[in-house]
Amino acid sequence: MPSGLVASSVTAISESMFWVLGTAPCSSPPCTSLLRTTDGGAHFVGLPAPRASLASNGDELNTVSDVRFADRMNGWAFGGALWATHDGGASWRRVPLAHPVTALAASGGVVWAVVVDCASGTSGCGSYAVDRSPVGSDHWNRASLPGLPSGSAPAPSVGLQGDAIYLLVNHGSTEELDVSVDGGTHWQERPGPCSADLGGTLTASAGALWAVCPTGMLAALHRSLDGGRSWSVVRAPGALENSATLGAYGPQVAAVSSAGGLSATSDGAHWTLAVRLPAGRLHITYVGFTDKDVGYAIDAGATIGQLLRTDDGGAHWTVVHF
Fold this sequence. Notes:
By secondary structure, the chain is mostly beta strands. The radius of gyration is 18 Å and the shape is globular.
């Protein structure tokens, strides 16, 4: 197992089994590393990682920045390129998608990827498409959606609930929520909660959709309890930066990065500052929950690359040691 891992991404399929993508000192780059635990982080084993450099974002071609697993066998590393494994991470294959992947999620036996769709092949172009594949194979096809952004639109954000797919998409002058409840066969358009020119980040969980919406200065929190038909503003825990990251389990349990640290709620209304870090140190790049108690966060502040875990719904967080 590699020592000195700097964590970049985490993906969990249960409270006991998760994978961590990062980089560790090595003599033969790329030094991208992958760890897996089956006992909640008490012990880790090293696995082969994709032969791609680790990047902090998806702009750099032929790199990866995030990892997601749908189950014990099927997973993907993505960013500037897309790699897939169907044997639990024992081996990886480069998937021949032409452009970077900005978001990826799997549910209901299908994996969905938001891809850059312009000749330049960089995510700054503002034109995107959505591809999908069965989780157990690499048979990718373009999804037929009501509409996709073009020009300088923000990248779409994707959220999954079983067979339901939600896409927060800029449609020109409006931000829409494209919804399919039958695995992508039929789609509906519903009003989105965010500004069209600034976009937003969607988090889907059983019984609730959450959205972090940049406003130009600070971000606002919105929540829907009816599949995106209507949205309400959630009082935020202090000042939220436009890049705020949120994870949630249902309508009540959530954690979000704020100016003071990482704040959590257990009732969907009242927040407590669960992790306080010095100003300029905290940079939460991911928050997610596997159930109402267990969640994970990546603190990439000051290039530390720490993995944080909670066992009490976000009230307390501890550093996971590799």
